[in-house]
Every structure is written in structure tokens, then in C-alpha cells.
Design goal:
The chain is mainly beta. The protein has one helix at about 60-70; strands at about 5-10, 20-25, 30-40, 45-50, 75-80, 90-95, 105-110, 115-125. Strands 4-3-2-1-8-7-6-5 form an 8-stranded antiparallel β-sheet, with helices on one face. A hairpin with a 5-residue loop joins strand 3 and strand 4 (about 45-50).
């Protein structure tokens, strides 16, 4: 059951056509729910997941997630669809206790299927 809702605006300098917004909710323990990333221009859905999960130890990018958790002092969440781990992989990082504050930072780490990665910063406001 959600206790708080949030909307995030991307701060990373990118072309307008590539800029995203992320919205969602938190349960009482801070688990992100109903996470939805859409393109600002046009509204196309980039990714969505009903409940973000902890990153599994056998996730192919668990070491990357552990690095970013330490670097950002934030909890990493798996926002990839269940099943086959092929295609782009996405993880979001949110500070612990964000469900109780009015404003927080969100970091999105994306590994591209064809190689390389993207790192995107967001400012989030609790609704």
C-alpha cells in the first residue's frame, strides 16, 4: 500500500527528445512502487514496473550496483521486467528514508545492450 507519491525531473543535460521524468510511490518500508519512466517530449514509456525489487546477487550487474550504492550512499533497486535479462538493464538509486522527506535525489543507471552505459540524475518531489 503506497504511503507517498513522487515525481522526478531529469537534471542530466541531454537533448529534449531524450529527457525523461520518473514517477512512482513508496510503501512504508521505502520500496518503490508503480515506477514509470516516460519521455518528456511525446510521453513514450521508457520503462515501468509495479514493484522495484532488491538487486539479486546473481544479477549480471550486481557489482556495478554495489559500486553505485556505496558511491551514492543510496539503495539500488532493480526496475527491469522479470524474466530474460537481455536488452538494456536499468537500476534506480534512492536514499534510504526518501519516503519521509519532501525532496530527494534519484540516480538512474542504464546498461545498454549494445555496450556502454548511461548515468542520469533526477530531482524528486514528494506529492
Amino acid at each position: 500500500m503506497p504511503i507517498a507519491f513522487f515525481d522526478c525531473t531529469e537534471l542530466t543535460v541531454v537533448e529534449l527528445a531524450l529527457k525523461e521524468k520518473i514517477s512512482g510511490a513508496f510503501d512504508a518500508q521505502g520500496v518503490p512502487l508503480a515506477v514509470l519512466a516516460t519521455m518528456v517530449k511525446g510521453g513514450a514509456i521508457d520503462f515501468q514496473i509495479a514493484i522495484a525489487g532488491p538487486v539479486a546477487d546473481d544479477d549480471p550487474y550486481a557489482a556495478d550496483v554495489a559500486f553505485w550504492e556505496q558511491e551514492l550512499t543510496a539503495q539500488g533497486w532493480d526496475v527491469n521486467p522479470p524474466g530474460d535479462p537481455s536488452g538494456d538493464r536499468r537500476y534506480i538509486f534512492i536514499p534510504e528514508g526518501a519516503q519521509f522527506v519532501a525532496k530527494f535525489s534519484l540516480f538512474c543507471y542504464r546498461i545498454y545492450e549494445g555496450g556502454g552505459n548511461g548515468q542520469f540524475e533526477f530531482e524528486c518531489i514528494k506529492q
